[in-house]
Each structure stands twice: as C-alpha cells, then as structure tokens.
Amino acid sequence: METKQCNECLEIKIVSEFYRRNNRPCGYQSRCRKCSDQAHAEYIKTKKGRESIRHTGKKIRPYRRAWDRSEKGKEKRRRYAQTEKGRKLHREAQTMYRKQNQEKIKAQSAVYTEVCAGRIPRASTLVCIECSNQANHYHHHNGYDEKHWLDVVPLCIDCHNKLNRLYD
Q1: pTM above 0.70, yes or no
Q2: pLDDT tens digits, residue range 47-58?
Q3: Terminal-to-terminal C-alpha distance of the chain
Q4: Which residues are CB-neighbours of 33 under 8 A, at least 6 positions away?
Q5: Which H, E and C letters describe 111-127, residue by residue?
Q6: Is 19 within 8 Å of 33 (Cβ atoms)?
C-alpha cells in the first residue's frame, strides 16, 4: 500500500485519502482530502472565493440559459421545484441571498415604500434615462448605502441589465 504525508496536518495516510492531481510528480495533491475540503470550505467564505465561484458559473451560463429557456428545460425545472428537495434548495438559496444582500434589499424596500406612499412615481410611468423607452425598474446608481436609498433613476429592463453587467 502506497502512503503519503499530508502537508497540512502532517499525518501519513494511504494515497486513496488524497485527491488526484495529474500535474504533480506523485499524481496526488499535497493535502489529504479532509484538509483539502476544509481549506476549500474556508476559501468559499472569503469574498474572493465567492466571486471565483460566481465567475465560474458565468462561463457556462449562456449555454445553460438557452437550455433553461427551452420547453424541455422549463418543464424539468418546474418538476424539480415541486419536489421536497427543490423547495428546500430554493429556501436555502433565498436565505443565503438575503444574508449576502441585506443593504440591497433594504434599499429596494425603501423605494417600494415611497412608491406605495405616492412620494415617488411608479417606474412604469416614467421613461428610461438611457434609451427613452418605457422604464420598468429603478436603479440605485449611487450604491445601497442608507444615505442613497432614494437616489434612484428609472431604467428599462435592457438598460438595467446592461448596467448590472458592467458592475459584475
């Protein structure tokens, strides 16, 4: 049985407890699976880790988006969303989004409150400041800090998506 020492925990383990890495001389990673998983979990908690995962997802997004919009993709997503696992995953994703975007949600809620109170007109009654089409959304162009919650501009969907892609 072939063994190897983990560079993280310094324990000597059999090679089956290491992930494969073909570009390494021995053919395995320098950390054992347990240490590698722990390091990966810590990395995902950092801002750089979250962004790398998000950007990795964007590389495949155009292909997935086309499939998701197909009738076959829509039907499969509908069926999955009705399963217990699909509902649970959706709730977890919503919870994570709310935790990561608390300021954004507060800013959007403040605008919604002002619109309902009649102090700000509905975006759909205005024109887009970029292309002069009918606006659909308000855009927080100065960020989501509390002092800028009501500094919004009306945009149509296309212009809003273009601006959001610039900031991503």
Answers
A1: no
A2: 777 766 665 554
A3: 49
A4: 17, 18, 19
A5: HHHHHHHCCCCCHHHCE
A6: yes
